[in-house]
User: Fold Alginate lyase from Amycolatopsis xylanica.
Amino acid sequence: MLPLRPLRRLGVLAATAAVLSLPLSAGVASAAPVSGGACSLPVLSRFCPPKTVVLDGKRLLVNKLALLFGERTVTASLKDLLKQADAAVKEGPWTVADKERVPPSGDKHDYLSLAPYWWPSKPKTPENPLGCPYVQRDGVLNPETTAVSDKAERLKAFTAIYQLSLAWYYTGNADYARRAALDLRTWFLDAATKMNPNLNFAQGIPCKNDGRGIGIIEFSYTFTQVLDAAAILSTGAPGWSKGDESAFKGWSADFLTWLRTSQYGKDEAAAQNNHGTFMDMLTSGIALYTGQTAVAKDILEKAKAGRIDPQIAADGSQPQEIARTRTYHYSTFNLVAFTRLAQLGERAGVDLWGYQNPKGGSIFKAVDFLLPAATKGQSEWKYPDLNFLQYAALDSVHAAADAGDREARAALPLVPKSPIGDLYPVRPAAEQLDDISTTG
Assistant:
């Protein structure tokens, strides 16, 4: 007779194989609730892929199986992830309602932030206490903006929710799940602490405006992580109920309505640089999560001509991003949006990986353009950057390699890991690995 552990492993393998063999329709499989079938059975539901929007739920399930068999790459990556989750389980929860500064609406439940690269141009006096007018210094953070806590706490909260949900999924440790659920409810659902589903006062410029469409970027590059986290918790996590899931989907749907109908949302959707790419990623991701698959597909299809055509040159460079003062940072940043957008396309049945614009540019070429610097360092990057960090490209190289880019696959072993390790194997979607807290 086989020992108990191998028997359990064989049982998990058999159940997983059975579920993975089920026919799944494109888009709906990752974004809409499963009705009927094996996944509705309590015994098998824990072996079903999470209905994630960017992450590949089937791959997460295969990773769980790989961990049972001690696969080295996934095991090492999980060890790095758990270091982050073990810290996150002791922090927070965070809320927009605890800030000192009151938004122009008078409601602390409204998210508030200031433009990071705008500075006073005059001495501060009793007659001009803010030093108005403010002027832009691209890439140079005004430390006064950090006095408004919502932006920094949002990043901490969303990162923690993502890491904790993944940690629970892979380990089954209920403490991770309960903390992720608490963080989610505190930021989005509980009446005393929840954020209103708008960004009316994001990245305002003192003496100039209360908010800007450009401020939506503060959610665009992180909120799809939260959507995937909620989808993972909805596979049966302790502390996260069906009512919580329904309420969060309702909040997300309201937020999507604001994004698509407000003037700020329309302004951001019209942007021709990373802001526009991330806006598409944000809105298509929410649409998939809330079951609006046709809306998601429309956004993703339009991204071909609307984003890839104007933003990626024939050689793979990104003209709008290399015009910045942090050229490598913003080139890798925009590729986070492009590679995640392409993964959203995989869930919705829209091929962005294979699309080539009339100039010959593509997402693969944009990744390949970075490979010399990503593998050999700043000497291979011919543009200025205020703070070049070679490892910032790692996740986008991972994503392109997974999607079939041979040059990226060959280069991958030569790209250095970030200081927190290589988390991509256990959360296989690109994240910005250098400091994004100052990104605007």
Observations:
- The radius of gyration is 22 Å.
- The chain is about 50% helix and 5% strand.
- Strands lie at 112-114, 118-120, 134-136, 201-204.
